[in-house]
Automatic annotation (TrEMBL):
UniProt source species: Lacibacterium aquatile
Span covered, complete protein: 1 to 685 of 872
Keywords: 4Fe-4S, Iron, Iron-sulfur, Metal-binding, Molybdenum, Nitrate assimilation, Oxidoreductase
4Fe-4S Mo/W bis-MGD-type domain sequence ranges: 1-53
Family note: Belongs to the prokaryotic molybdopterin-containing oxidoreductase family. NasA/NapA/NarB subfamily.
Domain of life: Bacteria
Keyword Magnesium: no
Protein name: Molybdopterin-dependent oxidoreductase
């Protein structure tokens, strides 16, 4: 056996990994995302291959059954529900862990064959506000730049992102560049984190203050830059955005919680530096104003033309390894495959023609929180959950629990049998895990990489794409699901991206239309778009043209808006949720590696000394919201702002700790993106 080149399954940096026959994992020196680097989690991948409690056969009501019987049951339940209650009574809830090929067939089944928009994913918790903000600004869900822009910038602004812990290899690249060229780093985060330690300036912004902060910057830029520095001919909406921003200028310091000196220092640096990259992540996205925050950030780049050129632009750092790939094939309930628009008749007709179907879903489906609320209300008859644990990750776990109890048939595809969600399923389907499955993923810089199998499938285990196709065939769509493997699916995905594409759709990988299985096997990482007859495209929008009807980008007027739930006497503190450096999701993988657990071994509640009263570090405390409670170990620290506490998201009920924070979190969502406000819940201790 030779060395296998694959991709790390943990985060949106999308590092290349090589694995030798002994299971030794190293960073892939040829992969353009990491050039050989790995973080602590990626380095430990070889130690996570033998997962305990592996699910090795389908189980119906706890009893092992064969795959044929299991798939017959899924198809029969879906068919019955559709016949009796219509297509919108069934749903799939997927994950940024799925490979693009899995996502593609899941979307084809739901939005094409069944005709419902009810295919959503846990990327709704991660990226949905960025998707909505980018679509509003650029006319498409498009990341303009590249990782190398971080190394070419003179000022890097990190907003709502503990990059040092959550995107470690990207951070290593930034710090190496800082050492070389003296890059200024501004970190905008209510908390002091590992990332703020390297910051030239840390702005401990008030939660919810980002729109005000960037609106203030927009005004400063308009007032202090010569107008010929503005990107006027390529954008529209600047006057309306300026008017909106000026209307709130009086309350800028109150809205941001920052002093005039802090604000003006940042604004001055931004105005004086041409090469600026603004990286934003969950602190921006996981908010009831997430989409507006994304647009406030993009606005300042558009207004000054700091986009599409080396060392410039807004860059969304994706949480999950394949949140972006899922979006390319319509992974969110309000999308269709190939960035086609579910609200557009012409786009729907195009997709129906390509898939040889009479029609496709003609309206958006239920977004994650709404989907589980609908299931709890008895409106979903069959729900298929893949590669995710919504009992832990969605807000308001009581609603999720009721949804799983009330829905007549819940299918869970996973690699383990004992997740909080799997324990409530009627049918469990054993899925292939990392190292066993083949396909592609897309990282935060639009780079598509292969994830390759290097181990044989355990007996009884099947990849998700196969299970979905088998259900599709059983529902009468043999022609649509006649795929022999992931290469066939990718080939169709590439063909669709170029189908009747006159250049309006930026997502285009038609250069790979007709790719052979051998070429798919050897496919090297590349950035889309990769149009037929052209080379892959690194940076977009350098020409000042955007995929909107008039070719101009939109500067979107946005007004500061407070979070939905504000603290009050009974719940005086604000709970923020965050992630650890060495753990991933609910610790199903990283939790079995002892040395990763040593970094932060217990679930803590970080409390400011001003709020601690008699509470001492190390004491057990209960944190309570209007939605639930959790038990955590107090850590008295001034890392956060007074009045704010923080907890990590990794602990689950399955560990028996009582430390799961999901039930405490409020279910408010962004009205545009549907992304939950996971970082702002009023609580008491
Ligand atoms: Fe994996 Fe992300 Fe670490 Fe890279 S930075 S090794 S993708 S977890």
């Amino acid at each position: 056996m030779s060395v296998t080149r694959t991709t790390c399954p943990y985060c949106g940096v999308g590092c290349g990994v090589t694995i030798d026959p002994s299971g030794q994992v190293t960073g892939d020196r040829d992969h353009p995302a990491n050039f050989g680097r790995l973080c602590s989690k990626g380095s430990a991948l070889g130690e996570t291959l033998a997962l305990p409690n592996r699910l090795l056969s389908p189980r119906l009501h706890g009893k092992a059954i064969g795959w044929d019987a299991a798939l017959d049951e899924v198809a029969a339940r879906f068919a019955d529900a559709i016949a009796q209650h219509g297509p919108d009574s069934v749903a799939i809830y997927g994950s940024g862990q799925l490979l693009t090929e899995d996502y593609y067939v899941a979307n084809k089944l739901m939005k094409g064959c069944i005709g419902t928009g009810n295919m959503d994913t846990n990327s709704r918790l991660c990226m949905a506000s960025t998707v909505a903000g980018q679509k509003r600004a650029f006319g498409g869900d498009i990341v303009p730049g590249q990782y190398e822009d971080l190394e070419q910038a003179d000022l890097v602004v990190l907003v709502g992102s503990n990059t040092a812990w959550c995107h470690p290899v990207l951070y290593q690249r930034l710090i190496a560049a800082k050492q070389k060229r003296g890059t200024r780093i501004v970190v905008i985060d209510p908390r002091r984190t590992a990332t703020t330690e390297d910051a030239t300036l840390h702005l401990a912004v008030k939660p919810g203050g980002d729109v005000a902060l960037f609106n203030g910057l927009l005004i400063y830029l308009i007032d202090h830059l010569q107008t010929n520095h503005l990107f006027n001919s390529s954008v529209t909406g600047l006057a309306a955005a300026e008017e909106m921003a000026r209307a709130h200028l009086r309350t800028l310091e109150r809205d941001t919680g920052l002093s005039q000196a802090e604000l003006y220092l940042f604004y001055d640096w931004f105005a004086r530096t041409e090469k600026v990259v603004t990286v934003f992540s969950q602190g921006v996205n996981q908010s009831s104003a997430g989409t507006d925050k994304v647009n406030a950030i993009i606005n300042v780049h558009l207004a000054t033309g700091r986009i599409g050129r080396p060392g410039m632009g807004p860059l969304s750092a994706t949480g999950q390894p394949n949140a972006m790939g899922g979006r390319e094939v319509g992974g969110l309930a309000n999308q269709l495959a190939a960035h086609l628009d579910i609200d557009g008749t012409a786009d729907r007709d195009l997709l129906a023609r390509f898939w040889k179907l009479p029609r496709v879903a003609d309206k958006p489906g239920l977004k994650a929180v709404d989907l589980f609320t609908a299931a709890a209300d008895g409106k979903i008859q069959a729900l298929w959950i893949m590669a995710t644990n919504p009992m832990v990750s969605l807000p308001d776990a009581d609603v999720v629990r009721r949804a799983l109890e009330r829905c007549p048939f819940v299918i869970v595809s996973d690699i383990v049998a004992d997740s909080d969600t799997a324990r409530r399923a009627h049918l469990l389907l054993p899925a292939a895990g990392w190292g066993e499955k083949d396909g592609t993923v897309t990282n935060s810089e639009r780079r598509i990489s292969r994830q390759r199998a290097f181990r044989s499938l355990p007996d009884g285990v099947k990849p998700d794409w196969w299970a979905i196709c088998e259900v599709g065939k059983r529902l009468g769509f043999s022609e649509q699901f006649a795929f022999q493997g992931p290469a066939d699916i990718f080939r169709e995905h590439a063909a669709l991206s170029g189908f009747e594409n006159d250049g309006r759709r930026v997502f285009d990988i038609s250069a790979l239309d007709g790719i052979t299985a051998a070429d798919y096997e050897g496919l090297k990482p590349f950035c889309w778009p990769w149009r037929k007859g052209e080379q892959p495209t690194a940076r977009l929008f350098a020409d000042g043209r955007f995929p909107t009807p008039d070719g101009k980008a939109r500067i979107v007027p946005v007004a500061p808006r407070p979070p939905v739930h504000t603290p009050r006497k009974k719940r005086p503190l604000i709970l923020n949720t965050a992630r650890l450096r060495d753990q991933w999701h609910t610790m199903t993988r990283t939790g079995i590696v002892e040395r990763l657990g040593q970094h932060r071994p217990v679930p803590q509640l970080h409390i400011h000394p001003d709020d601690a009263g008699d509470i001492q570090s190390g004491q057990l405390v209960e944190v309570t919201s209007d939605w639930g409670r959790a038990l955590l170990i107090a850590d008295i620290t001034a890392d956060g702002r007074a009045g704010e506490v923080a907890a990590m998201m990794h602990w689950t009920a399955a560990t028996g700790s009582g430390a799961e924070i999901g039930p405490v979190v409020n279910p408010a969502v962004d009205p545009v993106s549907g992304q939950p406000e996971l970082k702002h819940t009023p609580v008491s201790i």
